[in-house]
Design a protein that fits this description.
Helix content: 55-70%
Number of strands: 0
Number of helices: 10
Distance between the termini: 9 Å
Strand content: under 5%
Length: 206
């Protein structure tokens, strides 16, 4: 499957998911659920993680397009992302949760980027974490790729990246601990569901 063809699918998914996310974010303003615990409060605010936080979309896009070469695995991954996006949207509509915004007092460039991010990424749709779900989904699918079989370091590298993305959501005060745990659980479920839909039913040829 050509890089151009894969890029069209990936870009279309990113655009549709962004539009759906934005619509829900600005339509559902309730904040009925607060999952803040003493552990969440104890986690320090580290604005420097904002740069890692924003690697999500570029790395997902480039990885799906360049590193996943098998057609069936590509559509399996794309299906996993579509399923995850739908489930996340349902949760954001039916179970709106809110993370109290951390007051930023320093004037570093990283803190400024956090403030800009918050203008786009609201705090009223935290459960489960989309960042965590999507990063772990990519790690799971990359470990099944031919590139990961060829380069033994690739799979572990993406796992470490997914762990760091998960940490970034906590230290940036974007998500609760329960959001991270539920995001990993959702990613795992969507990974296996997509495998059943695409691999076992053979919806797409190699």
């Amino acid at each position: 499957m050509s890089v151009t063809a894969k890029a069209k699918y990936v870009i279309l998914f990113i655009i549709l998911n962004f539009l759906a996310y934005s619509l829900i974010q600005y339509s559902i303003t309730a904040n009925e659920y607060n999952f803040l615990t003493s552990l969440d409060v104890a986690i320090p605010f580290v604005p420097e993680f904002i740069w890692l936080y924003h690697t999500l979309i570029p790395i997902i896009g480039m990885s799906l397009i360049i590193l996943i070469k098998n057609r069936r695995l590509f559509f399996s991954a794309l299906s996993g992302y579509a399923i995850a996006a739908i489930i996340l949207s349902i949760f954001y509509i039916l179970f709106p949760s809110f993370y109290p915004r951390h007051l930023i007092t320093d004037s570093s460039f990283s803190s400024y980027m956090v403030e800009l991010t918050r203008l786009v990424d609201g705090a009223n749709n935290t459960f489960p974490s989309g960042h965590v779900t999507f990063s772990w989904l990519l790690a799971f699918f990359l470990m099944k790729s031919d590139c990961a079989k060829k380069w033994s370091w690739l799979g572990p590298t993406y796992i470490v990246w997914a762990v760091l993305i998960s940490i970034s959501t906590l230290v940036l005060k974007q998500h609760y601990i329960v959001d991270v745990v539920s995001g990993i659980v959702l990613a795992t479920a969507c990974f296996y569901l997509a495998k059943v839909m695409v691999f076992k039913r053979q919806l797409y040829a190699n």
